[in-house]
Amino acid sequence: MSKSSLKFLVLFMFIAIPSKHFGQALGCWNSFNINYDNGKKWSFASELQLRSLQFYKNYNYHEYKGIIGYKLIPNLQTSLVFGRYTTFGSGKTFQNPKLAEEFRLALQLGLKNTIGKFQVDHRYRFEKRYYTSGARGIRIRYRAGLSVPLDEKKRTSFSLSNEFLLAINAGSSIIRFDKNRINLGVTRKLSNMVSMQVGYLSQYDSKSADEPGNNFFVYSLFLNMSRLAINKPQHSEN
Predict the structure, then answer these.
(1) What per-residue confidence (pLDDT) applies to 3?
(2) In which residue ranges of the chain is pLDDT below 70?
(3) Which among 8, 36, 198, 200 has most CB atoms closer than 10 A?
(4) Distance between CA 223 and CA 31 in Å, rounded?
(5) Of 218, 187, 220, which Cα lies nearest the Cα of 201?
(6) What pLDDT, on the 0 to 100 scale, is given for residue 6?
(7) Which among 31, 213, 233, 34 is positioned nearest to 145, based on CA atoms?
(8) Three-class DSSP category at 217
(9) Positive/negative CA dihedral, 213, 143, 102, 62
(10) Residues in Cβ contact with 88 at an 8 Å cutoff, skipping those fewer than 6 apart
(11) Residue 89 has what pLDDT?
(12) pTM for this one?
């Protein structure tokens, strides 16, 4: 076993095993992402997410979405994000009644820079929320991320991000703090097409009706359908 593989295994075990040190129940945040980049301007992706309030039980949330991206300049990309998001009660897996069901349409701007071995990215998202109940809402999101390779071949990398979410209710000009998400993880490139990430996400929630939960084990699988092997850190488009 190579040193990079050993580092990945140790970090995986440290992050993945639930611990009594967590003040609240450790939930799961799972995602599967398929993306295609033509190597020029356009990119396309779809993602499925499944979340639970306990470790691989009591599933209460799922979403599926599509992303269409256009690269304005090498380090700056704009995207259109659209999807369906559903949150259930916290009693049992997908237990009714539904707390929230909505369609979201978002405009996104992503900026990336490289500083030595580090890659810094900024994501700005403006999303409109359409609930099946008839309610409407707007949310503004900003995420700052940092990633660094852990081996010379850049097959394993460590990433850290922090995202702030601000909400505006329909018919109101009052902006309120909604959520803060801190995410750290280790990504391993298994082949030119497949990558996986394990990590931990801590969420401060303003206790709105949707997306409850505070501590999550993160597992993500990425499938890159691009013809060109593009070395870039993978992030779930949550």
Answers:
(1) 54
(2) 1-24, 170-173, 207-212, 227-238
(3) 8
(4) 11
(5) 218
(6) 47
(7) 233
(8) strand
(9) negative
(10) 59, 60, 61, 94, 95, 96, 97, 98, 99
(11) 84
(12) 0.84
- The helix/strand/coil state of 16 is helix
Q: Please state, in angstroms and rounded to a whole number, the distance separating the CA atoms of residues 196 and 14.
A: 16
Q: Which domains are present in the chain?
A: 3-224 (2.40.160)
CA angle 138, 139, 141 (to 5 degrees): 155
Q: What is the pLDDT of residues 37-53, one digit of tens each?
A: 987 899 999 999 999 99
| Helices (H) then strands (E): counts for the chain | 1, 11
Which residues in 97-119 are b (16+ Cβ under 10 Å) and which e?
A: ebbbebebebebebebeeeeeeb
Residue type present at position 75: N
pLDDT per residue as tens digits for the range 125-150 = 999 999 998 889 999 999 999 999 99
The whole-angstrom separation of Cα 219 and Cα 12 is: 10
